[in-house]
Every structure is written in C-alpha cells, then in structure tokens.
Design goal:
The protein is an alpha+beta fold. The chain contains 3 helices and 6 strands. The chain has a single domain, classed as Alpha-D-Glucose-1,6-Bisphosphate, Chain A, domain 4, CATH 3.30.530. The mean pLDDT is 86.
Length: 123
C-alpha cells in the first residue's frame, strides 16, 4: 500500500509542477525606436492611433509616459505603449500580447510606421 501512496504523490507533484510552468506567461518583448519629437506629442499621437484602430485605452499616464490598450476581438490583443525622453527625442516602445502569448516584436512594425507617419516623420 505504501508503494501506491508514493506513486500517487509523485504523479500529483508532477502535475502541480507542470501546471505552474504552463500558467506563467512570458513577458512580451518590446519594439522600440527614437523619433525627434517631444515625449508628450509622441504619447498623444500613439494613444490617438490606437483608438483609431479600435483599441480601448484602459490606462494612460502622461507623467509616466505609458498607455495600455486592449482589443475586444478574439483572442484579444493587449498593447503597451511607453514613451521616454532620450537625448535625440522620444524613445517609443511598443509591446503586446495576443491571448496569453507575447507578440513578435516585428509584428508591431506596421503600427510604429503609422505612428511615425502620424507625427509627420514618415521616410
């Protein structure tokens, strides 16, 4: 009987350990670049662009230079925009998740290109 109890304990422990690994989402990797604009202008243009694309702005803090937006479309996209001061303008960073999976950084390039155009800095 002791053998069966030990075996069950090992199986339960293994399932709990695997469940913990599966539940920990990976942090999304940001895509970032610097534009020669003021930080506030970049943040405002980014928020406006996300709203025009159908995202709901859930949180926005101009002092911190951050905004979080979500899309109601399945499986649900969540984007995070961060803008910081840099010696050459505004450091703009965008990261996102689809469901619980991080978006590939290069998949955010079209949005960043649109933001660049909205700021009047398209190449």
């Amino acid at each position: 009987m002791n053998h069966y109890l030990w075996r069950r304990l090992m199986i339960v422990s293994l399932l709990v350990w695997l469940g913990g690994c599966a539940a920990a989402p990976m942090a999304p990797e940001p895509r970032a670049f610097v534009l020669p604009v003021e930080r506030q202008a970049a943040l405002a243009a980014g928020i406006e662009l996300l709203a025009e694309r159908g995202y709901v702005i859930r949180h926005s803090d101009a002092e911190l230079g951050r905004a979080e937006a979500v899309s109601a479309a399945w499986p649900g996209y969540r984007l995070r925009l961060e803008v910081e001061e840099s010696p050459h303008g505004a450091l703009i960073s965008l990261s996102g998740q689809r469901g619980n999976q991080p978006l590939a950084p290069e998949s955010l390039d079209p949005l960043l290109a649109e933001l660049q155009a909205a700021l009047g800095l398209a190449p």
